[in-house]
Structures are given as structure tokens and as C-alpha cells.
């Protein structure tokens, strides 16, 4: 069982999309996958069409699990492709629900221990903020994938995130590894972008990680698949978005999802 957090405190850089696309790809390939929505915005919960507590107030979400009111197994929803634990908008008030400050960052790590061996991969979506929720993800994860847009503000964000990652390593999770930085919503023709790619490569080597060769292009198929409550490999396997996420999955996990999907 390998646990990946997808994190960047900057908003709108494709964290949720990346969790869903990688999760869908690995599930199509045949792996058992659990997605965890740790963002109060609950975007992953919505695009995966999971039941939310807004739809049914008895739904167990990450809030009750982190607050230790429910066991992690109570929150798991089985979807066609993968399993998911939904978020709740009330997750924003997590700090008031865990009064023991020292215990706060460890709640997800402890909850996941109960799932030992049940999944091949667990992917955690995080909010656009550095706080208790992102900390829980960084403490629980084996590795962290950082999606970033190729602009100067995202570059600054990556170094702030690095400090948080270092702190998680120092205090709680010494073996945490940065898998790499994936440039998303990429529009490679702009001249400025080329210079930025060079800057990102420099930043990555300082963080002792890499910028993935694969760049995820801006592509309408991503939004179309999400609007259709589908995943990119099912909705549009021939799209640029499928090709890009397939290449990213190959780079990280060394498996070819599209080959598998087209053989079916
Ligand atoms: N490669 C892409 N091509 C086109 N649109 C994309 C792409 N990736 C993401 N988007 C769109 O950009 C928006 C932001 O993406 P997403 O929600 O995945 O980012 P996020 O980092 O999770 O945002 P937040 O920080 O708010 O959680 C969404 O509307 C999504 O559909
Ligand atoms: Mg998101």
C-alpha cells in the first residue's frame, strides 16, 4: 500500500484533477485505489459523484474520521472504479474539533493504519492552504506530488510548500519523499514559459526532486469529463488529457493505462 498526497497551497493548480486522473488511471490498470478528499471545498467528492453530507446528513466524511467519531471504514464509499472517502464543508473547522493540538497532525496517519493492505494506492487531495488538513496529508503520506502552473507565483508557492514538507519530515514523517513537480495547465508556446521551466528545474533540484518530463496541457476534455461525472480515460481516451495523464502515470508508476484500456 502506497500513499500519495497531492499538495500545493496555491489554488486552482490541478490538485483535485490530478488526484482523480491518476486514481482513475491506476484503477483502470487494475490496482485497488482509495481516494481521500481532505478539502472542505469537496471538489473531489463532487466530480467523483460520491455521496456528500450535504445530500445525506448521515454520510460519514473525513471530518468524523479525523475527529474520531467514526472509524475510517465507515466513511469508505465504493464507486465503480475506485473507493472514496468524501469531504465535508465543515472540515474547515477541523481545529475546533480536535482540541488536543499535539494529536492534530497524526489523525489521518493513525486512521490509515486500519486499512493496511486493503489498497494498492491511496491518493489524498488537499486544500489550497497550509494548515491542519495539509499537515495530516503530509504526515500520513509516503510521497507527495506537487502540481504547479508554470507561472512565477506558483514557483514562489513551491518554496513555501517545501518548508512545510521539511517541517513534516523533521517532526513526524522522516521518510516523506517528494515524487516530483508536475507542470499543469501547460501552454508551452509562450516564450515566458520556457524561462519559467528553467526556473522550476532549478527549484526542483534545490528541493532534491525533479520536474516531471510530462506536462499536463490545458485541455477542454478535462472539464468535459468532470462535467459528465466521468473520468478522462473513460470519457475521452483519445484526448490530449488522457495522453498526458497516461504519460505522467507511466513516469511515476511505470504502467501504461491506455494500452490496457484500448486492449479491453
Ligand atoms: N489540464 C487542464 N485543462 C483544462 N482545465 C483544467 C486542467 N486541469 C484543471 N483544470 C480545471 O481548472 C480548475 C482547477 O482545477 P482543480 O480543481 O483540479 O485545481 P485544484 O488545485 O484542486 O484547485 P483548489 O486549489 O481550488 O482545490 C477546474 O475547473 C478544472 O476543471
Ligand atoms: Mg482542489
From TrEMBL:
Record CDD domains: ParAB_family (cd02042)
Catalysed reactions listed for this entry: ATP + H2O = ADP + phosphate + H(+)
Limits of the AAA domain: 1-178
InterPro entries, per database record: AAA_dom, DNA_Partitioning_ATPase, P-loop_NTPase
Pfam family, one: AAA_31
Quaternary structure (record): Dimerizes in the presence of ATP but not ADP; ATP-binding is required for double-stranded (ds)DNA-binding. Interacts with DnaA.
Family to which the UniProt record says this protein belongs: Belongs to the ParA family.
Record-given protein name: Sporulation initiation inhibitor protein Soj
Taxonomy of the source species: Bacteria, Bacillati, Bacillota, Negativicutes, Selenomonadales
Amino acid at each position: 500500500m502506497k500513499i500519495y498526497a497531492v499538495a500545493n497551497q496555491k489554488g486552482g493548480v490541478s490538485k483535485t484533477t490530478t488526484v482523480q486522473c491518476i486514481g482513475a488511471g491506476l484503477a483502470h490498470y487494475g490496482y485497488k485505489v482509495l481516494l481521500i478528499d481532505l478539502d472542505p471545498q469537496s471538489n473531489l467528492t463532487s466530480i467523483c459523484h460520491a455521496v456528500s453530507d450535504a445530500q445525506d446528513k448521515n454520510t460519514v466524511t473525513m471530518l468524523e474520521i479525523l475527529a474520531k467519531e467514526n472509524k475510517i471504514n465507515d466513511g469508505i464509499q465504493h464507486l465503480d472504479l475506485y473507493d472514496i472517502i468524501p469531504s465535508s464543508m465543515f472540515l474547515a473547522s477541523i481545529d475546533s474539533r480536535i482540541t488536543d493540538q499535539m494529536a492534530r497532525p497524526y489523525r489521518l496517519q493513525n486512521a490509515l493504519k486500519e486499512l493496511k493492505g486493503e489498497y494498492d494506492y491511496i491518493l489524498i487531495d488537499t486544500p489550497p492552504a497550509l494548515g491542519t488538513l495539509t499537515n495530516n496529508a503530509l504526515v500520513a503520506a509516503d510521497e507527495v506530488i506537487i502540481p504547479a502552473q508554470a507561472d512565477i507565483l506558483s514557483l514562489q508557492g513551491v518554496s513555501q510548500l517545501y518548508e512545510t514538507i521539511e517541517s513534516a519530515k523533521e517532526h513526524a514523517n522522516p521518510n516523506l519523499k517528494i515524487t516530483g513537480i508536475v507542470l499543469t495547465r501547460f501552454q508551452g508556446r509562450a516564450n515566458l514559459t520556457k524561462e519559467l521551466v528553467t526556473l522550476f528545474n532549478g527549484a526542483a533540484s534545490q528541493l532534491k526532486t525533479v520536474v516531471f518530463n510530462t506536462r499536463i496541457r490545458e485541455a477542454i476534455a478535462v472539464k468535459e469529463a468532470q462535467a459528465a461525472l466521468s473520468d478522462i480515460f473513460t470519457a475521452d481516451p483519445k484526448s490530449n488529457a488522457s495522453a498526458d495523464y497516461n504519460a505522467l502515470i507511466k513516469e511515476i508508476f511505470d504502467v501504461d493505462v491506455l494500452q490496457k484500456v484500448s486492449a479491453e
